[in-house]
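Researcher: We're teaching a course module on how sequence relates to structure. For the next exercise, students receive a sequence and then see the predicted structure as tokens, so they can try to spot secondary structure elements on their own. Here is the exercise chain.
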Amino acid sequence: MNTSCCARSRLGVHAFCCALIVGLGSLLAFNQQARANVFAAHLETSATSWNFQSGPITFSYRLNQPATSVNIEIYRAADPNTVIRTITNCPTARGLNQVSWDGTDDLGNQVPAGNDYKFRVIAVDAIGNTSGTWVDITPKPDGVNEIGDAQFGAPQGITINREPTSAHFGRIYISNSASTASTNPGATAAGDGLFLLNNDLTFRGGSASTAAAAANSSLVTSTTTSDVLSPWKCNINQDNPNEIVVSDYLDGYENVWVFNADGTEVQRLLNSSTTGPSTGAAANHGNQFCTLLSGIGTGRKLWAIDEDKDAGGTRFTGGYDLLRYDVGTTLSNYTGQPAEVKNGGTTHTNPTVTNFYSGWDMQFGRVKGTSRLYVACRRGNATTGNLAMVCWTLDGNGNLTGALWSVQNPALSVPAGLPDNYAEGWNYTSSIAVDEARGRGAVVSARVAKVLIFNTETGAIIGPAFTVGNGSTTSYRGIDADFDAAGNLYTANANDGHVRVWSPPDGPNSYTTPYSGTMLLNCPYATPTILVQPVSGKTCEGRSFTFSVVAEGHGAELTYQWKRGSTVVGTNSPTLTLSSVTAADAGNYTVTVNGCGSVTSSVATLTVVANCIPDYNGDNLVNQSDWVLWEACATGPDVPASSECLSASPPKDLDFDGDVDQDDFGIFQKCLNGEYEPDPACVR
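Model: And here is the predicted structure for the students to work with:
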């Protein structure tokens, strides 16, 4: 167990404990020559409301790969730029890690009670992948076999939650399309369905059975045509990361399902004609290669690439149309027929893109508020289509407004007799993934199992293709892909059952993950009470002046912060002494007392008098003539002087206590110099 994480103790405060649980389970060996872009996910707390007197609170996080360093910053939600505590040297192992906090700030002071504390995890990989190429860095527990080696029979879809503010940030979803267990050595997962993985590729909950969506059991056991028998692509709702849409490819079982983020609830959005909308394309849609969701509530839209789009009630082959349904909240909320966004093999003026054929996969930009839709085609046809990839722009209503760019399929220029995979990376494209935050995307060829990286702004190819596993020249099983938040590429290969991670050729990185919730710190004591408020006063330039406050509350743990206006001028003392004051010290003062909660005093005003030397007749002397003028205001102890005497300048009330008495005479007498100029410091 690593216990090096900034351990600290101090008198009067609970000793800080960094109880750390590193990489629950076995610690894994990694290829140190190439590291992934590291990021923390699945941030959780041992409690959302706690009392520091009963012990520290525990933060947990998962690292997708080993980090070089990890720090945790604690702050108030209302002021994220002000870090009240930094915990350094935290665990860096891949997997689950834990760190505890005792509720103190960087100075060792107990922080005030409140319900808006948050934390963020800053993971740094100073090693990174410096090879200049995309490298397979899938964890290998035994140094040879990859983690969960071939754990799925036919993983057709993969999607990753990349929204940092989501409670499910970093979660990986796999749609598996094999109805029986994988026959690959080391396989651990079986059956159709949606599986939930952590960002380190471990099963959510620790096993394949806990990782399978709870609703799957009803989907895979039924034999009716309304149930999922061949889950295909899966995607996260563009505008709601708590919804996962899964499409079905198999003829006769054309379904589209929506799961909640935990997979415990499921809703059918599109289904076979027996129970679907009664007329038109919405009733007799065909195979669903890929579906996307956008919008929330009644504004929800379903996008679909349909191989066998209905035409007059009869399915036809080779359509691969791009359709959009206004689905709202339930199956019954469809509004009319689907909008035919793009039809295979025909020309549309809006957008002006020709020869759209065999659409296979599509993705939104996945940056929140994106206005782009990317589509990849499975193959090119010499007579009906040569489009390989296109990026469309969308307006605020989700309508395509034009093509930003398009890429043509080079396979069409291949001489006769050469194999389909001659133009490797394009022919039989199975997947497209987009990382707009870094300006790049990935398109995957299923038959040759290779990836091409492209520029999302122009469609231009970035670097050579690289192999991501085994392809199949006889099967349409695909290889799906998605990027995580840190820029790593994940591939799910239905041919060999593997899910792999590919490190980008960008070198080291740093990623900050915020906790999605807030924490409440309770206190066992009452809010501090101010018994004696600070008192306003006057003083002469060059003199000192002291404000004081008397408060009770959390005993010795009370702290103080003095302010002049909004400027902090003193801390951690019930008194504030200003020495050799100047005109700049004049103003309104308050003190905030912190303990279990905080309380701020009433305003006390300091007035600074510029001319305090008692030269009342202005002859630069302090002598008998000035004495006569001062004596005219004398009242005796505790007898209020007249307003004229109290407002006189230079002051007659030299100690500013409201009367003109012997105390003031004592100050005046120190300035008497007869026929000599007085000492400028005589009233100090």
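Model: If you want an answer key for the exercise: The helical segments are 208-211, 216-221, 280-283, 624-631, 643-646, 662-669. The radius of gyration is 36 Å.
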